Amino acid sequence: MESIPVREAVWRSICTKPQIWQCEEFLTSEECAAIRRLAKASLPAKCFSKFRIDLDTDPEGALASAQPKDAAVLRAVDRRTWALSGAPHEGEMPWAVHFTPSEMRTESDQPRINLGLHVDTNNGRERRHLTFLIYLNTIPPSEGGHTIFPLAELPGEAADQSFSEARPLGEMLLQATVQHTGQAWSRDTLEVQEAAAALLACAERLAAAAACPDAQTAPTRLGLAVAAKEGRCVAFWSRDSHGHLDAAAWHGGAAVTAVDGKWTLQKFREAPMSALKGCCIETFASTHQHLRLPCFAGGVRFVDEEDADVPAEQMQEASTHELSGQKTFVRLVRSAYLTKAHGCFVVLGTDKFLLEWNDDLIDEEEYALIKNLKETKQQYRDAFERHSRVKMDVIQIEHVMQQCKGRLVQGFEEYYEHKFGHLVKQEAPEDEGERYDPQEMFDLAEADRLETQHPDAMACAKPDFSDDQGVIR
C-alpha cells in the first residue's frame, strides 16, 4: 500500500537585508536521495570541479528514463516552489543540481571562496528576483560548503569597523554593472577591482569563521553563513522592496573538504514575460517580496513560525473572522466619507465620528478619507486572498485525509483476508452527514457569504440617514 506524504514544514526569517527565509524540512532524506539519483545519472565518472546537471520536469524530457517515483519527487518540489512564490513558471531555466567535489586544502591561506561572489541576475538574467537553494546532503561546518552572504545585515548585534566599511562595496560594483567579482578584473577602473578584492576578503574571513565554529570570534552584525544541511532550503530575494538589485544579496559558496562533496538543488524564479507587458521588472519584484504562507503543495503544508502547530480548521476560522472584520471596516470608512457632507454623527459599535456641517469643506480632509478608504479596501482584499488560500489548504488536507482513511481501510481488509480469511462486512449505515451546532452553522454560513463576495465587486451601499437622530443605519 503506497503511503501519501503529508507533513508540515516551518519557514522562518533569518535575515531582512537581503530578505532570506529558511525551512529546515523542505525535503525529507528520501526525497534528497531521489534527487541525487536523478542527478548522478548524468554525472561523469570523475569530477574535479563544480558540475551542473539540469533537470527538466517535463515527462518527455530528461526525466523520461528516470524512475517514476524519483521523477515524481522533483515535480512535487516544483509545485512547492510554485505555490510559495505565487507566480507561474514561464521561460525559466530548469532545475539545476550542483555537485561540488571535495577540495584538498594544502595551505592554510588557500582561498575558500575560489569561485568568487555574484548576484543571481548575473549572465543577463535580469528577470530573476527569487532563488530557492536546497541542500541535498549534510556537511559538517568544519568541512566548509557554507553559502556566504558577506553583506547580509543581521539584527541585534554591532558590526565591527572592517565589516562596516564593506557595506558600500556591493553597491559600487552594481553601479559599475559588475554582477560577478570575476568581471571586475576585466575593467580598467582600479577602484572597481579594489572593491571586488575587498568584498572577497570579507567573504574569506566569514567563511573561515564559519568553518571554525568553536573559535572565540567577536560576533558582527554583517555577514551570514548558511551551513549545508540535508533537506534545508533557503529562499532569498535578489531585489529589494523597491524592486531594485539588492547590494546585500552578493553571495558565493565556500570550498568543500568533505569526502562526499556537496549536493545542492537550485531554482531561480523569474518574472513571467506575460506579467512584464504592463509593468517593469522593478514593479513586479516589489509586489512579490513575500512567501505565500500558509500554503499546501507537493504533500507539504508550509507555515511560518507564528502559524506552526495551529490546526488547519482553526486557521480557517481565524481567517474568516479577519475577513469579516476587514469588510466591516471598509463599510465604516466609506460611510464616514459619504457622511462628510451631511454633518452628522457616525455611530458604529464603539467608534464615533463627529462631522460638523461646513459649506467650505477642506480638500485635505476629503483626501484623507479617500486614502483611508482605499487602504482599508486593500487590507480587506489581502485578507480575502489569505482566507481563500487557507480554505484551499483545508480542502486539500481533508481530501488527503479521506484518501489516507480509504487506503488504511483497504489495507486492513486485505491484511485480514490474507491472515484470517473472508471478512464479513456489515451493511454501511446511511450517511447522515456531519452534525453542526447552531454556532458552527452560523460560522459556516458567514464564511460562505464572505467567500461569494470578491473585494473588487463588493457593493458599498449609501448610508441610510435618520432625520431625527442623524445616525447612519
From TrEMBL:
SMART domains: P4Hc. Residues 18-270 form the Prolyl 4-hydroxylase alpha subunit domain. Keywords: Dioxygenase, Iron, Metal-binding, Oxidoreductase. Its cofactor is L-ascorbate. GO terms for cellular component: endoplasmic reticulum. Signal peptide: none annotated. GO terms for molecular function: iron ion binding; L-ascorbic acid binding; procollagen-proline 4-dioxygenase activity. It holds the Pfam family KIF9. This is Kinesin-like protein KIF9. It comes from Cladocopium goreaui.
